[in-house]
């Protein structure tokens, strides 16, 4: 565990000013964990830089003194990625929160890493533009989204964060500053360092500016809520929909139990909840007529596949309660019980088998396992709920269930994490999944960028 | 039980802009929708239907395109629909609209309850519901936020008068205007869409409605623009002032100052 010395504090104070540095009792305990409380650790100091230059100086000093540096955005991660497990410096990006430019000619934006996702989406939409990635956690920072390659609900149509990052300004572990990528639509110029930084969870460098791709804002959206007699039936309808060549921008699946939890959490009724399972699909386009055709095609497919009915929400105020509830699922479950999560991604056609397997485990271990997620891209969020299970037993069976779930994920040719990242808590499962050769290659990449292993140590592959 | 629900097709207001120079709504390329408040009226009727058994009839006044909102009501569970459509009805103000609707309702014959939305999102007057009741000579209650009891001859409802919640009973037949969020409106059902595909919409025109009036000359005055006592001169967005005040103090004083400020603004 690294403790910073008085000398370190004095030096760091000279860079950012004493007011932008917190030590000892000044450190807010919130900075010791992320959203899921899976791991706790106090940093020896928290630092709030306001510029690339300050971050560069901090890194130069930290590298020289071999002080661990962990970067934190708004701390909404779920795998301990922003927890300073080796102590040292916790560097907050929250003061770097400016949208520096929205370039309507090039359809790009330049933002600082601490910009909140929701603010950014709203800002570009005001100009009739669209930032397509739509991770569920809207209070996350864009920097955090880039560092975990966050996905979200619109991935099926628009891809994930990686597909919308054109360039980055990065402070390396030595304090040197580099620009990778740029306001360009193509790039075939050597290895893509840009793609290495995206999804690196702060282990390769500190992102200080992000160039993002924007799209024209689709003018209309429509949503279908489709009730089914079982979750298996709901999910097995998805391949039929995708085969029809109609491309929704979101295909989510959910169970009645989660909908009821969200209703309770939000204190607002969901428009329909008498069926055991649902698909929720959203379409976007520029005219009402175009969306009507898409909805009709998908509605027919669902009815033929055995849907109990198909409900259409064609106006914004009819769509809102549906997506508000979907957006509140995680918070609703957290309000209900202590929990742990799995973010496995499998080929789309295998989701049914993965979710059916959770039902088997639920019976075998006698605890509630609820799942929801992105039926359109194979990313399933599986939640294990402790409820009133005694703590000792909970910690005893949790690793057993996790091991079985990840094994199943591998069997189905899936990956450990679809969008939440590896952080600290999923390292073991990543090692099992990738195998020695790949882990060794990844470790060499880490060493090339950060030979002293000071950037977010003890994460992902190290 | 027979329940009549008054509905209206309105511009989708999330996208309507006002042409300030001309003082009119920019309607070009703007989609239409069922007035959001009417969804609550229809939902209320459909819940009574589900619980007590009822026939739900929707009625609307508008151009022929307004058939779309009657169909939407079918897809939610309404049993039949009437569209009052005639060039002579065009340009009606709230009085003429209420009068025309009342004449249409009289054509339906016997009924137990009329439900309307509290207001529309295009006119926002909240006058048409009560005016329909007056023309029909019905007891009526506005701003209903809950239905407590439905019996064959009477109804007990709750109304939100901002500072008080009032529980009132009234004899049927009667008219209610319901407030937003009385119930979560159901969505459009594709199964109902398929099953009501061939269901007709009764269209009534000026001749149909003017025939059943006793003294034609007087009543004629309430159809359309020419007999509307009020006319819209200009439409403009109300000016809004957004101001911001930043308080900077030590935390203890700041808390006190914030509370004082919130009290001053009557927020707490």
Features:
heterodimer, A: 462 residues, alpha+beta, Uridine Diphospho-n-acetylenolpyruvylglucosamine Reductase, domain 2, Uridine Diphospho-n-acetylenolpyruvylglucosamine Reductase, domain 3, Alpha-Beta Plaits, 4 domains, seven-stranded antiparallel sheet, five-stranded antiparallel sheet, 37% helix, globular, B: 268 residues, alpha/beta, Rossmann fold, nine-stranded mixed sheet, two-stranded antiparallel sheet, 8 helices, 26% strand
Short summary of the structure?
With 462 residues, chain A is an alpha+beta fold. Chain A is built from 14 helices and 18 strands.
Structure description:
- The complex is a heterodimer of chains A (462) and B (268).
- Chain A is of the alpha+beta class and 462 residues long.
- Chain A is built from 14 helices and 18 strands.
- Chain A folds into 4 domains: 6-92, Uridine Diphospho-n-acetylenolpyruvylglucosamine Reductase, domain 2, CATH 3.30.43; 99-216, Uridine Diphospho-n-acetylenolpyruvylglucosamine Reductase, domain 3, CATH 3.30.465.10; 220-329, 2-Layer Sandwich (Alpha-Beta Plaits); 337-411, 2-Layer Sandwich (Alpha-Beta Plaits).
- Chain A is 37% helix and 20% strand.
- The longest helix of chain A has 23 residues, at 427-449.
- The two termini of chain A are 16 Å apart.
- The model of chain A has no long low-confidence stretch (mean pLDDT 94).
- With 268 residues, chain B is of the alpha/beta class.
- Chain B has one domain: Rossmann fold.
- Helix content of chain B is 30%, strand content 26%.
- Chain B has helices at 36-52, 67-76, 94-108, 128-136, 190-195, 206-210, 216-220, 251-264; strands spanning 2-7, 9-11, 17-19, 24-26, 32-34, 55-61, 80-84, 113-117, 140-150, 154-160, 165-171, 174-178, 188-189, 202-204.
- In chain B, the strands form 3 sheets. In chain B, strands 11-10-9-12-8-1-6-7-14 form a 9-stranded mixed sheet, with helices on both faces.
- In chain B, helix 3 crosses helix 4 (128-136).
- The radius of gyration of chain B is 22 Å and the shape is globular.
- The A-B interface holds A 220, 225, 268-272, 288, 299, 303, 309-318, 321 and B 12, 14, 31, 33, 36, 39, 75, 183-191, 194.
- Strand 15 of chain A pairs antiparallel with strand 13 of chain B, so a sheet runs across the interface.
